[in-house]
Amino acid sequence: MKKPMERLRELRRKAEQRLFERKYQARMRITVGSATCENAAGANEVYERLSALLKKHQLKDVVLSRVGCTGKCDMEPVVTIVSKSAIPSKYIHMKPDKVDRVFESHVLGGKPVEELTMRYAAGIHSARQVIAVCGGAHCLKGDAIALEDLFAQEVAKAGLSDHVTITSSACHGLCECGPVAFVYPENILYQKLTPDVVKKIVTQHLTGGRPVAENVWQGERLTNRFFPIFGDVHFFGKQLRVTLRNCGIIDPEDLDEYLAVGGYEAAVKVLTEMAPLDVVNAVTKSGLRGRGGGGFPTGVKWNFALSQKSDEKYIICNADEGDPGAFMDRSTIEGDPHTIVEGMIIGGYAIGSRQGYIYIRAEYPLAIQRLEIAISAARKAGFLGKKIFGTDWDFDIEIRLGAGAFVCGEETALIRSIEGERGMPRPRPPYPAVKGLWGKPTVINNVETFANIPVVILDGPEWFSSLGTEKSKGTKVFALAGKVANTGLVEVPMGTTLREVVYDVGGGIRNGKEFKAVQTGGPAGGCLPASYLDTPVDYESLAAAGSIMGSGGMIVIDEDSCMVDVARFFLDFTQDESCGKCTPCREGTKRMLEILKRITEGKGQEGDIDKLLRLADTVKRTSLCGLGQAAPNPVISTIKHFREEYEAHVREKRCPAGVCAALLCYVVDSVKCIGCGACKRKCPVQCITGKPKEAHVIDTTRCIKCGQCLEACKFDAVIRK
Amino acid sequence: MKSEFFQKELARAKEALPGEVVSFIEERCSKSHPESHLIAVLHKVQEKLGYLGKEHMNAVSVLMQIPAAKVTGVASFYHFFNFTPRGKNRISLCLGTACFVKGAGKVLDKLKELLAIDVGQTTQDRLFSIDVARCVGACALAPVMIVNDKVYAEVKPETVAQILGEYGFQSSKVAQITAKTTASKAGK
Ligand SMILES: Cc1cc2nc3c(=O)[nH]c(=O)nc-3n(C[C@H](O)[C@H](O)[C@H](O)COP(=O)(O)O)c2cc1C
Ligand code: SF4
Ligand code: SF4
Ligand code: SF4
Ligand code: FES
Prior knowledge:
heterodimer; A: alpha/beta; Glutaredoxin; Rossmann fold; 6 domains; five-stranded mixed β-sheet; four-stranded mixed β-sheet; 28 helices; B: alpha+beta; 9 helices; about 55% helix; disordered C terminus; binds flavin mononucleotide; binds iron/sulfur cluster; binds FE2/S2 (inorganic) cluster
């Protein structure tokens, strides 16, 4: 019988060959993003249209497939067309009619429709080649900036300025061979750059078409296997894709595609070459910490479970993603479900568990479906079930659905829920690693934590721990949403500053408005103002600033939001989600919510702010589980950083952001009003009076403050005070 | 030997639920830790019937041999389950953080105004019901509204009527307002 690794490699070769013949050899590859968000933006219609057109024209040398989300959600639906030796065209905001145009011109005629592409939007469409010089900390030390300038000079000297664009990219974790630069579309990675090498690249490669062989990096890492498939890594700018290495790149419903990028090799390596303790030690050494919010060292947790003597143990993937404003886990599962399966196989082997569970929220139907497909494909291939990969190890996974209870993300509550009970937390210790599901030792890890495991195994703990900061290793995925220009999924090395995430990756605030705060950690986190934008994202720094890393939700808030109202929103949420088991959380959050409501309604009293802080302190200290312990955080952080806004509500009965309806007053500026009557027609309670062409008046006693008149007036004559 | 009474109960329970749900229960209960599948079973019932009625939960209790009080206890703990029939078209508006920051509150107001019902209620013609969700994971496209299984991105108060229109919504109120507007324009 063949050895497991040989067998897997053979499967991989077959997969590669199939894909090579069917896909990579094709004249043209078209991928359509397909995830919950892409589909909401209309990706299905776009896919159907393309599929119909391909059928109609019977194009055999063009392949169409779906991929997960690449994270550029505000530009969806995204269609990518990759042809050999050309920089890929990424068409954004696609609609069926645009598809027709692109099909006509690009697919049939070979001429990209530049003005519909992302590169056009970024102003670099005329370039035929892109040089991306690494802007990571290590490469910068090697004077990458000077090298970037030198590239520009040399390119200009060679008369290539119109055809070559020079940008900087994020650290790609190749620091030991830095400074490095990528050249697209050839996908060549140059290492150990010096001024001489730069000159040579320009004369020999860019002008002469012959790469400078001695400086081409030849290694292979899980995290950069996708380069040739995807086409242009500089698309990701300051991001570094470790967890999301395959998202938006491979077809999540095709096991072959996962195999082609080295899928399941880490699992087989672990099962055939490593003892459980070796695996645990590797994970410990990598410095990987839980991505579900707590940041507990994963290796330590696994070691705890490994040392328990028990006939049965369980491993659980927490895909409950309860933070209402986060979608990292959903995107990871929808884009690369096999990674989670592989991470769980490794975790199960490391702690001695033969049965895994994925607890996923019912609100994610597409993610559930993709997991089901992945699990059954893995079973069929012999990667799950009895004697997996032809070894003596048994391991299987079952999916369990949540049912809309935030507290079930907490590990002890989650266990109760899998058992079919009300999801109420219980005191710890005993920790689940000692006494968990059905009383057996159980490890619970977050989706993103599992997604990092294959990388730790194959690329090595040393490499993994070279990324990030001293105490926070690796990268972190954030779901960037709210009032930021580029909403979507981003992954950056730990230690990147909030400013870089919001401005460099996120493109700053939408519609030229003023930045007000960034919220991380969801209902358990806090809001940080502009003065904290240079805080690096790592567990300790965010906590010290008064927020938390959380699971990765990052909501950008602009001047249009009222911070008291934001605090009220979160408390409303936690109060509603409190399971009611312990009094401080159940009653305390209710009292706090009452006070916040009163403040937003203009009935706040002197001393309310201090009362809130006192209550917050009690709830934090005396609640049983993390929900109650963290519930006051949004209130505390907004009072700390935006106290003057609370005071304006309480003392002056004024909402500076103009949000709290009860504190608003709508009036007509009689000078600006031309008497067009637009406001009058819109007012649902008919409280605006005035003759045509004369200044109108609002009866403030009857006004319900709906704001429709303000929107209706084209002359800025309606004022909100 | 099970009592005649029990057999009768069992037969009644089977009748109260669609056949698909009954076989789902039988399949799940043949596995280890049968009682742990209660939540999955409740999902199945709601998927098929749209809500969990008292008679359905009693039937689940009999078929899974779990006390009725526990079945209702578990069902009521989780927000996902509802206990009254929903409208033919189930509207679910996301009120997660991203949607909230992007103005989902105003969309909700508009929905309530147009349909003249509150959250958790169903219109008299049983055509629509409104529920709120806590993040469906499409935050980048907030505010998000789901009708049945279709996700609508970047919904604005102004576009709500149009979306509802796809599901047969006709508002006499909306018609009135437009009529008035046209009339006053004509009067000028
Ligand atoms: C109220 C509450 C909600 C939580 N929600 C989640 C969640 O949605 N996803 C998650 O992975 N962890 C969540 N956690 C953290 C888990 O309890 C647990 O620490 C985590 O899943 C462990 O995995 P990790 O070590 O890989 O982070 C939550 C904790 C609390 C107290
Ligand atoms: S802190 Fe809140 S959610 Fe947690 S156990 Fe107590 S009442 Fe339940
Ligand atoms: S805010 Fe609304 S109710 Fe008040 S005057 Fe304007 S339109 Fe009328
Ligand atoms: S819409 Fe503006 S300009 Fe016209 S009547 Fe009203 S306040 Fe005056
Ligand atoms: S907050 Fe509405 S989809 Fe996430």
